[in-house]
TrEMBL record:
Annotated signal peptide: none
Protein's UniProt keywords contain Protein biosynthesis: yes
Protein name as catalogued: alanine--tRNA ligase
Chain ranges of the Alanyl-transfer RNA synthetases family profile domain: 1-606
Family indicated by similarity: Belongs to the class-II aminoacyl-tRNA synthetase family.
Amino acid sequence: MKSSEIRRKFLKFFEERGHVIVPSSSLVPDDPSVLLTTAGMQQFKRYYTGEADAMKDFGSKSTVSIQKSFRTSDIDEVGDERHLTFFEMMGNFSFGGYFKEEAITYAFDFITKEMGLLISYVTVFQGSPSTPKNPSTGSGNTEQASSGNNIPKDTESKGIWESLGVKDVREEGMDDVFWGPTGSSGPCGPTTEIYCKNGAGQDIEVWNIVFNEFFCTGSREELLAGRAELKPLPTKGIDTGMGLERLAMCAQKTKTIFETDLFGGFLKKEPISGVTERVRRIVLDHARAIAFLISDGVEPSNKGAGYILRRLVRRAMVYEYLVNQIEFKLPIVFTAVHETYARWYPELSKEEILNIFEGEKERFLISLEQGLKELKKFEKVDVKSAFFLFQSFGIPYEVIKELGGERTIHLKREDFEKEFEEHQEISRAGLEKKFGGHGLILDTGELKAGDVEELRNATRLHTTTHLLQQALRDVLGDSVHQMGSDVTSERTRFDFSFARKLTSDEIGRVEKIVNKKIEENLPVGCVEMSKEEAERSGALHFFKEKYPDKVKVYYVGETLLDAYSKEFCGGPHVGRTEEIGRVKISKEEAVASGVRRMRVVLTKDAEFRS
Ligand code: SER
């Protein structure tokens, strides 16, 4: 059975049973408590909480959808036979309409009669704590059990399954058969899951049927730790989710989801070879996810959904790079993704996907090679060295883990993420420590100050000088080079190579760029590396200066790779550009033939946190 047939059958089956077909919502949800849409129920959250009325909005208490979904939580599993980051979730929903009896019967009929599949077994909730204080009355009404979060065993669902002839009903706990909430709070409840066999004879979970009975006041983690409360929901309901790819794997009797027709098109077009089977699957998964994220307006960045996209792009690209861009080419895979899915999702734009991908690729290639070389140098890649590789060269965690092989055996994702968060704190506190209480007069060759306030202004103007050099290159071209610089607490004076007087328009543009970078509040970071590597990173340096073998590179941006400006430098600098305030170019003049001089002053007070 083709996947297009599965789509059609699913929607029709539920439409015939009073469900209104609702189109997929965007992968970027309205709900600020989650980054991306992880389930079909997300767009319907307000109908369970009573904030919205389904009868009014849909003319029915039941809906059905095929929802674009994305789960970062499964990223480490991608590469096996059944996990994906992006997937399509088929689901039927009821808001205060039908409950357990109908939901289970619909699912049973759809799987066995419409799809012609055998159910291997199902699971039901065993109660929590696992020896329930309030054994179920069999009515499915668990409201009285919500205090202290005691939830009774779901004997009602067990009974329904048995009456339908399903004999293998397994009882499981909170980890597996209690769903939600999504984000920081929301509807949740016990579930029952359906398992069917794939082409390799493995039992695969295909359908999760949630009995939304509670509103959880905290996140899932808080709930499991006993720190969130369950309250009865105003509108009890049904929320089901069935992965289209998994169902297709069972229906088409394939061993993995990657052999179903949902991926088949890409493989026929452009076989991805020269890599392991696992890597091939990762690339297929990521290519599809990248295409859908971009088409829902996500752009690569170092925050939120943009950061997820960036990681996927970089990971996919690293593999492409490692096989020398000969064996497979991602743009061809993107074109095939587009051809396969545009029929269902007209928002997919081939041009946009390719443009964003190519832009990101260009930026990343510059430092990838160097990062991979650095990675090889570590005998053991611990969390600090992994973070160094990420911060300096933009190598994502997943790639470090994978390419580091044995050397990354002790590296754990949660430690890496903790390091990431801690780092944000440290860079804020960084300069404070550096100058705390002593030696206010600095003479780094570039910067002089007499007291704390002067030091702060000189530091602001020092970072301004870096921004200025890059802005001059942006406006006048890369032939601009530093010929000299002098920073005091009053002004920065920067000499650079350029043949003629600047027009007032050029001066205005340079000033505007510098102030824009200040407003963007970019972090300023520093890495130490060999002179040769620093040169290759593209960091600017002053030709008159003699540098030691090991140099520091200061960069303005989230990572060395993304940096707007990078220069060989001894510091000090502000922690974030907003601390500069605002600047003005006060003078532009000639100092020698082919050398111009610019002075820049501070024009607005800003809080100095560094
Ligand atoms: N919300 C549940 C899930 O995502 C069922 O749709 O599995």
